[in-house]
UniProtKB/TrEMBL annotation:
SUPFAM superfamilies: Nucleotidylyl transferase, Phosphoenolpyruvate/pyruvate domain
Full protein name: phosphoenolpyruvate mutase
Lineage, uppermost ranks: Bacteria, Bacillati, Bacillota, Clostridia, Eubacteriales
Keyword terms, alphabetized: Isomerase, Nucleotidyltransferase, Transferase
Species of origin: Clostridium punense
The EC number(s) this enzyme carries: 5.4.2.9
Listed GO MF terms: phosphoenolpyruvate mutase activity
Signal peptide (from-to): none
InterPro entries membership: Archaeal_FAD_synthase, Cyt_trans-like, ICL/PEPM, PEnolPyrv_PMutase_core, Pyrv/PenolPyrv_kinase-like_dom, Pyrv_kinase-like_dom_sf, Rossmann-like_a/b/a_fold
Ranges for domain Cytidyltransferase-like: 11-103
Amino acid sequence: MKKVYIAMSADLIHHGHLNVIEEGRKLGEVIIGLHTDDVISEYWRTPLLSYNERKVIVENIKGVSEVVPQDELDQVANLLKIKPDYVVHGDDWKEGLQKNLRERVIETLKQWGGELVEVKYTDGVSISKLDETINLIGTTPANRMKKLKKLIGSKPVVRIMEAHNGLTGLIAEKTKIEKDGKIKEFDGMWISSLCDSTAKGKPDIELVDLTSRLNTINDILEVTTKPIILDGDTGGKIEHFVYTVKTLERLGVSAIIIEDKVGLKKNSLFGTDVEQTQDTIENFCDKIRSGRAARVTNDFMIIARIESLILKAGMDDAIARAKAYVEAGADGIMIHSQQKDGKEIVEFLSIFNQFEKKVPVVVVPTSYSHMTEKELYEAGASVVIYANHLIRSAYPAMVNTAKSILENDRALEAKEYCMPIKEILTLIPGGK
Ligand code: SPV
Ligand code: MG
């Protein structure tokens, strides 16, 4: 019996998969190379079903003899092991994302006279369309909330984008690119105090109260499905913080990050230019413990943000606080810095990651924006937040438009800063 190798993710099985397997069955014994969870997370998104769940499904498809893990998107390692007579694949990989992978398969098969058989792509099925359909169904608060922990557990680095209203929520939810054979997108949203305040025309000093912030959160919840991390400022008084935790958990927000400052909070990126007071370790640990006691499930994460480097209190203080906050039960640590070279962040991570008791570390590379996600991951970070970039990019475009209209007594010249009317009318589906 000839050996036939077919690689797939099979996270959403459709008749296109069955067609390919049926063609393979005509050629011989079908071995499925099933992408592992890491492979799917790397090139696409967190799988809906785990490897073992997908394996059971695929094993039970008529014509499948064996399912083996494929732990790279590239089939070559498995092909060298199995040396199949045929590889069967849909013919939709000749261009785009998978073109190189196809060429490598053809080259490898040549070594033992194997053959690539391409099955005409099944019309009317598209994984990305199915994905969109699933997103249209929406989510529930519990499902959305759980997603963040799941992502942190399954991806090298979780990529979070700032959102401050429904529209920026949609940008974080839907923006996708194809690069180096992978689909890249954001994993969730950060509701920044700076951007939420700025969007409301107010300073970032905890002036925008929880009720107002909940309006922003609700606008974003309504039109997105990805997990949300709330910038909770100092968390306020402990007696208030416990209510905040319950409210956010009920809504399906995944995490709150609170910073260890007291008094009139100002934005961290002022550094020591403004007066700011750090909380005592004791008090802040109490806040963490109270928050933990208030939540209903441990799917909701309470992340402790350390301001020692911002306030020039030193690395030792940052490390001592990290230890204490983890002991107090913080589900994650955010370490902040406004140094441009990123060195103190790397130093903190190298010390923190030697701790016996570790939790995921969140970083916000606004000042050290030259550092890539890969570099931050290699340094030991788990979550990277792009904390303010959508509002910072929108503002100059809006001011340019306003100035251009004043300059020219008409709107014609502002056209270059504006999207076409046709596009804005159809940007949000359902308006027609
Ligand atoms: C925010 O985005 O509001 C933050 C991060 O707290 S930073 O502005 O860098 O302090
Ligand atoms: Mg903030």
